[in-house]
Design goal:
Layout: H1 2-10, H2 38-57, E1 87-88, H3 97-101, H4 125-129, E2 135-136, H5 140-143
Length: 145
């Protein structure tokens, strides 16, 4: 969260509130299954209301103190593995739902089997949204972690 705040501020934004919310894991439904639930969504809504109040009552956002967020600097070193992307099996019906839902536009609209591993962030949106279960990770980097 500290790193995200710093990136956002470096790009000219003012961070006045920050939070992390629970959600079902993108790789498996065995972690945080069916989350966010009603209680989670209520907490997120309450956070949004408090953030809105904070910005509404602030007289001078441009001169506000930097938002303190618990965390470490330097940031935790990430060991980025091999770039890989989901593969498409014979179940693909060329519906395009995968490409429509890829946040990185890594899936070609000309050929839904063509996924740019350099752009893919392994979010699994294409896997979760595919109505024919045609996308999956078969690369050992993902399967074995």
């Amino acid at each position: 969260m500290v790193e995200l705040r710093d990136i956002v501020e470096k790009n000219g934004f003012i961070v006045f509130a920050a939070s992390a919310f629970i959600g079902e894991h993108s790789y498996t439904d065995k972690v945080a299954t069916n989350r966010p639930d009603t209680k989670d969504l209520q907490k997120a809504k309450e956070f949004g209301v408090k953030a809105e109040e904070k910005i509404s009552f602030s007289q001078d956002l441009l001169n506000a103190n930097k938002l303190f967020i618990k965390g470490n600097f330097p940031y935790k070193e990430r060991k980025l593995g091999v770039k890989c992307a989901p593969e498409t099996n014979i179940n693909c019906t060329n519906c395009g739902i995968c490409a429509d839902n890829c946040p990185m536009e890594a899936i070609s609209f000309n050929n839904y089997r063509d996924i740019d591993a350099e752009k893919c962030i392994n979010c699994c949106s294409c896997i979760q949204k595919c109505p024919s279960s045609a996308k999956s990770f078969v690369h050992e980097h993902i399967i074995k972690g």
